[in-house]
């Protein structure tokens, strides 16, 4: 505001300070307010990790490792890709929604869902909906959550495929994190139990080695041949990985890998923030662009309301997070007092990632931004065509020439940067443009670009493995109604069967997107955003019922306001995607355009260059349009039933208590990231107790 008022150019440094200060104040005051008024944690109460401990899915996990796992699991494609795409609207709308939205909506949802699930034995969101809403609302919630989860995991996997496809460097570095994580899991459980800092240092060193060695491997003849994988085969590899990560015990691969990748995630974002403070790049984007009031944007179509909120998605509010908060995380929490740090704090960290992604996008030349994010149909896929198209947009202060685009591609070590849609390459160019001014100079642009591409792939892949495991829990809850053995996590055959079915579901959607002639990410990302936000509204609806039945009144507005806002913008967005007559906006309009063209005997249309491609588009858009209808109908049923149950609770009717019975805890753990002096002293006494009674140490020696 000061810069605008004084007529100065806006500097990226203000984004860093404004966001960080907002988060600190929100965590200390609003997060604490929600904790005191709604959650009221009780550390004398045993968590599912303690009373249902099985050494596989229910394991008391050190809060620092769990924070890393939770953050790594929730921070997928959304906070990286969404803000970059939404930069088309200018820097101001996205910044406000990311910061304000996470404080009042996103972090509140993650925190409350984690607590609600933890007090119900780690039940999935779908199972809690059945318990709280009854048969009709429960069935609708199960269908919505399960189908939306498949879409979300498929889109996350697709972004990984697009980032790693034909990249030997990325495939080698990201692939190497798997054996490193397995080594860390065995090291912490058997070789050096309890040595979290020690294994962290080793893991971080091995991760850096994986990154550095990736360049050597990519430049070698054997490496370029062996790890240069085509996208369909890479998709199959990710499908296999998702299955294995979901069926192995959580301490073997999932938790240590996510903890390991958190070093790179948080480290890279903090490094970028420090670079912004030192370099102080000037923001090239206007506060509000011309496309904020138009529906024909070259990056994505649709007006600011509602599509800005749907596009940014995970950076401010994400239904996928509710799946993690009611999936793996509640089964690993040691104490209820840790929930605010993990749930509320983890979401604030993800929001900061979104702010950094937005800054990277709005700090690059806007001509380059539009050339990278406009479709190949518009640019022709060439530097000359991209320059002509961008200049024809008539945007104030935006001009680019073919030589600039070619030189930028050369600087980052790519053949071309034209029409590199999806957000990830744009973020990589922005990060490289800032980091090379701090470390290495112009000669390091290519290194920082490929480092960012690899960072994004690693960032997103952790959500795929955690999401698959959560989907497995959800299906097990559903099948458990017919056969109770499916709800027994120790039944390995059931675990393998449910995992296989879920992987088959999202894997088929992934392959559909990879082979889509229109570019899977372009057509599926809007569906991802809508599904994600509908799921958030469902999660908040369930929380509203739960806390209304606990006797709360006015404080319920902290849940109801973000729920209603999210429902309105997302249902309206769904309406446009279903009924809009514009083929660029509506799935069914696009479907009819290609179907009618085929009926007229045409063999090409838009990006579909053959009749077979056109038939593929017809099929894909029919699937996407049908899913849009399914999502919004199920979500509306859930929200209507939830509102009715809430009204009943406020009247003192139908007051069900679905929490697990209270079990006295025989376990201690500090609440925050850094233990207080009193906690340290008590922790030492518990350490002595576990030395005398190792059979009591449920966490394998390190999580007391």
UniProtKB/TrEMBL annotation:
Membrane-related topology note: Multi-pass membrane protein
GO process terms (BP): cellular response to starvation
Domain of life the protein comes from: Bacteria
Chief location: membrane
Signal peptide: none
Keywords tagged on the record: Cell membrane, Membrane, Transmembrane, Transmembrane helix, Transport
Pfam families: CstA
Location(s), subcellular: Cell membrane
Residues passing through the membrane, by range: 12-30, 71-90, 96-115, 135-161, 167-187, 199-218, 233-254, 266-283, 303-324, 344-364, 446-464, 493-515, 527-547, 554-575, 622-644
Domain CstA N-terminal: 11-572
GO cellular component, one term: plasma membrane
Family from the record: Belongs to the peptide transporter carbon starvation (CstA) (TC 2.A.114) family.
Entry protein name: Carbon starvation protein A
Species whose genome carries this gene: Brachybacterium ginsengisoli
